[in-house]
Amino acid sequence: MVKIAIFASGSGTNFDNIMQRVKKGVLRNIEVTALYTDQPTAACVQLGQQHGLPVHTYRPKSYVDKLAYEQDVLKQLEAEQVEWIVLAGYMRLIGNTLLDAYEGKILNIHPSLLPKYKGIDAIGKALNNGELETGTTVHYVDAGMDTGQIIAQRKCPIYQDDTKAALEDRIKSLEYELYPEVIQQIIR
To answer: Which residues line the annotated binding site?
Structure first.
């Protein structure tokens, strides 16, 4: 079994999707050790509890600096013998402490066809800029914002009458298929 930790900051829908697939045996030979979050009141916390997982909450502002924050997180990852980190809507840049410890072993999913529309509100940016298509990207995490090596992408059209909510739903559907596929292929 390969031990992974999932990091999330928000609703936790990608986290929940991954957990459902682990439980159904679609994602094999993977053990999710815990959910890590920087947002103690986020919806992902309740989902983690529903899945019977430990939920580790770290409030970055309660630390002297990013180094101290990540050192604390790293201690817990090491205690759980985590081999891979999977970001699922984690809204913080990963710093050198975790990047060095997990070099080449941190995955992220982003709702755009990177390198376009890095960072927040990628869907809104694609919609507002009149793009004809967008999608989702799974990539390795590096020190930049959504700049790591691209592993896989899936595209979807943007319709003329699309709302942001409708486009978000289509992209989430793509993410729910693509991310588990990549996780299974990459993490063995």
So the answer is: 12-14, 66, 91-94, 108
